[in-house]
Design goal:
Layout (H helix, E strand, L loop, with lengths): L4 H30 L1
């Protein structure tokens, strides 16, 4: 499997989106626990 710059960029974007969504969910959960 040859990784092209475009696919690498897309995978990076996908990872960043997943990381942001999970971090936001964790932050909301922690805020609910604190409140």
């Amino acid at each position: 499997m040859i990784i092209t710059p475009t696919s690498r960029c897309e995978s990076g974007l996908l990872i960043s989106v997943v990381f942001l969504s999970t971090s936001s969910v964790v932050l909301k959960h922690e805020l609910l626990v604190v409140l």
